[in-house]
Structures are given as C-alpha cells and as structure tokens.
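#onboarding

Welcome to the new folks! Below is a worked example of what a typical request in this channel looks like: someone posts a single protein sequence, and someone else replies with the predicted structure as tokens. Don't worry about understanding the tokens yet, we'll cover that in week two.

Example request:
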Amino acid sequence: MLHRALEILVALVARDNSDSPYGPFDFSSDYFGLYPINLQTLRDHAQGAWSQLTMSALVAWLVTHWGIDTHLRVALRKLRHEMKDTFRVKPTDRGLEYIANTGPPVFTNPRFRQALQMLLDMAAIDRNEAGRYVVTTLGHNLLEETCGR
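Example response:
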C-alpha cells in the first residue's frame, strides 16, 4: 500500500506542468487552510523540502504530517462538533498510542456528493435511463474549455 501511495504522489507531481495546479480555477490564499493536503502544497513540498529528503525521511514526513497530524485534527474536530470519538491513534501521557478494536473504517463521500449535485444543478452531468451519471453536451464543452480535450 505504501508503494502505491508513493506512486500516486509521484504521478501527481509529474503531471504538474501548469502555472497553477488547479488550472484556471482561482482560490483565495486562505482557502486551503483547513485542508493542508492539496495540489498546491504537494507542489510546494515536492519542489522544496522533499527534494532533499531520503526515501525513509520522506515516508516519515508523510506519515507524521499528512498521516497522524491530519488524523488527529479530523478526529478532534469530529469529537468537538459531532461528539464522535473516531481516534485510531490517540495522544497520551506515554506518547501516541494505537487504539485497537475501534471497528472497521467506513466509506464516506460528502464532498463527492456535493460536487455531483453542483454538476447536476448546472446541467454539466445528467442521469441516463439506468440511473448512471453521464456528461452532457455542456459538460463536454466545459471540459474542453478547461482541459483542452
């Protein structure tokens, strides 16, 4: 799994060949504050500090910053706002401890559903007779304008 994750990161870095990793979409400078794992920070790290790291140091950085730190931030937010304890790794007086028997992870996709709803609302996608999403003529035109395809 680690090997595949690193391959994905390398592929994302390798495909980055534009002025902005988000193409023509413009985001305010504080937009990604709550989401520190994004294409812009990937670019910044890859062109910066990561290029000087050994593979083991890079993996340690990813596990620490994009793994454990992110998990703790999300788990604390869920505990605060939803009163749900979703910790898999918990800070204790003895350091970080893995919490066993917390149940299997579950699939959630709220942002994906929001994106689909926005695309439906603007008629860039539609549902066919089988209930599957299909790209509309407008959707194809938007893709061509944005991606050049």
